[in-house]
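FORM 7B: Structural annotation worksheet

SECTION A. Query
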Amino acid sequence: MTAVVTAATNQRLGHLQTRGDVAAALSVSEKYLTFILYGPTTKRTYRRFVIPKKSGGTRTISAPRKELRALQDRLKAILDAVYRPRPFVHGFVRDRSALTNALPHIRKRWVLNLDLEEFFPSINFGRVRGMLMRPPYEAGPAAATVIARICCVNNELPQGAPTSPVLANMVCSRFDGQLLQLARRANCTYTRYADDLSFSTRARDFPSDLATPVEGWTGAHIKIGPELDRVIVANGFRVSEKKSRLQFKDCHQDVTGITVNRLPNVRRSYVRQIRAMIHAWEKHGLGPAEQHFRQFYDTRARSKGVPPSFRLVIKGKLDYLRMVRGEKDRLYRRLHNQLHGLDSTLIPYALPIKPATRGGPSDAVWTQWAARYEHSIFQVEVRNAGVISGGTAFAYKRGLLATAEHVIVGDLAVEAPHLNKTSIKRISVHPDVVTGYDVAVLHLPGASPHMPYIPIDINIPERGEPIAVLGYPAVPLRLPTLVVAEGIVEAMVSDLRGQLQYIQISANLAGGMSGAPVINVAGSVIGIVSEQTFEQTAAGVPARAFHQALPVKHIRSVDVNSVVDVHTYTRSLASKRQARSAPGVGELLARVGEAIGNLLRALGLRPRRSG
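SECTION B. Predicted structure
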């Protein structure tokens, strides 16, 4: 199977043209594949059962039987290898979750959640087959027909087949692109988790092209905007009105079940349930607590009818709490230690609990973003007259890296996360760089079309808002290591002219962090680390360093089509500095006069005053 997946990754699906090609890729004979798909047992290839929905009603699950399931598992490995998920798609994607889907919507003024009705059944045989034949997959018509036949039943994607999630994401690629463009025009953030669509913004009023509240601004009832409705209907989907809601910042806001008002969190009822389950175990013992839970609270329907262990249910809920709030969270650690006291085989060790500190983002937030962006942030190595210095740059568009202009003082190369250094020859700078707009763009040669990039947020941050700086400190004799420096927005400050505004941050930064991205809890870049400044103090009083960042909106003023060679630019900088430092004629005459005066005084003569 490894060879099959590798071939599929390198060639997409273009090497699959016939039914025989598909059979070979699945490591079965063409005769066996034909028998499974068209033989007399076709009608018995799925086992169907009904489960209740949380919101009411029922959901039909179609679970493939053993032989078909084996083919679908093998096919899923091939599809996973060729599918490249876009950054805003989080459902059914490796290393992404409900938490990563919720993080971009934290601390927004408005959050819109939409639910698509009958998501999997809306994707039929023809849509799957057509998607497989179109770029970038380009499977042959016969092969596309066979793959769609393996994955569809009754002209729809079945809920319960292992191939349905990845195929749904592949089919929705164009749909996602259209929604992203609509969101960008409305200055909104967009994500999708399976059939859950989420839009958020910091704008004063929510864009009417997306939705408008009905019966008050709380958004309990909404009307879908005409532009958004047109895109959804054109792609063959329908919105479930009773599950759609527009949430204002003063009300409870959640995305895929995670509270996003200020920091990622779970509902209070979720924590109360964990506490109640642990308390029942402590007071009544494991057996009675488990019996009571199954009788009154475990209402979930299961295909095999065997409920899970009460112990594992508690641990699963606790693991989810840790994912959302972070392993260092004091509430999580208290509950973890309580469960350890009840069953040391389930929880083998206790965790130390540190004293309470002021509320801020959990470590899970910054850990998630650092892991997500580790391939989007680069160490910049600068060589100038034998002296090596460093900086940081980040990808904000494919093939384009943003950094601070003052980093560019010599030969440039980017290293981490690349295994080898890559020389930078071409750059673009801000047109008003001489007046303090400390931003430049590096053109990365040979950049992959799939290079990940970090989204930007041009809105001005609020004072006290949590931030983190992701960058590469310049530490001698060590391999480049991406670090996270946490802090808050202390103030928005202006230069003496009142024209240029900076974001003053409290993060403790080191050399090499110039040009690094300043991100908010939603994972968007809000600023680019610029040169630090120091306060003026009385003699003997140490001056505090003030770290400042240029708002990221200024990167849009850089004309990336106006490209200059690095060596040409650094030579022009050197000549300008030399010209600025060279004295003019008037200054030379003043210096000569001052020297003559000093000489006359040394000889005991008084210089003659003019006039």
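SECTION C. Observations
Residues 492 and 523 are 20 Å apart (CA to CA). The chain has a mean pLDDT of 86.

SECTION D. Sign-off
Analyst initials: ____
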